[in-house]
Design a protein that fits this description.
By secondary structure, this protein is an alpha+beta fold. The chain has one domain. It is built from 3 helices and 7 strands, in the order βαβαβββββα. Strands 1, 2, 3, 4, 5, 6 and 7 form a 7-stranded mixed sheet that branches. The chain is globular, with a radius of gyration of 16 Å.
């Protein structure tokens, strides 16, 4: 079973904004890099089958498959963990989450379903993510 990571997407307003920022930073590379201080001890369970789930404005809104996890030394800043992410952003059913520092492990059972694959999306109707999150918090979904 894949293990995932969960991280707050600071300064990002929407999935579209994240797409734009990552495209600018990626340039001609085939993958996106995200740097963090701590190396996951369970990296072997994540790489190749796990994803980084992004919290945007208090909701888990999107995920990115994790291609590789490496330890790198940045010239002036010292040792970091580099997450290599597939540039494909996969929208998820919104799930409310509190802010936290750094990343957290996310088990497959707790990970939100990809958008369009959850029970709320039967028949192709499209509810705004905020409304879905509110209905879920009220126990109606």
């Amino acid at each position: 079973m894949p293990l995932h990571l969960l991280k707050v997407c600071v300064g990002i307003e929407s999935i579209e904004h994240l797409t734009t920022v990552q495209k600018e930073r990626r340039g001609r590379r085939r993958v996106n890099y995200h740097f963090t201080r701590q190396m996951p001890q369970r990296a072997g369970e994540i790489v190749g089958s796990g994803s980084l789930y992004w919290i945007i404005k208090g909701l888990v809104r999107v995920r990115q498959p994790i291609v590789a996890i490496d330890s790198v030394v940045l010239e002036e800043d010292g040792r970091y963990c580099r997450l290599s992410l597939d540039p494909q952003l996969v929208p998820t059913d919104p799930q409310p989450r509190r802010p936290h520092q750094g990343w957290r492990y996310l088990s497959p059972e707790d990970a939100p379903a990809d958008l369009g694959k959850g029970p709320e999306r039967k028949g192709g109707e499209s509810m705004p993510p905020e409304l879905l999150a509110e209905l879920r918090s009220l126990g109606l979904l």
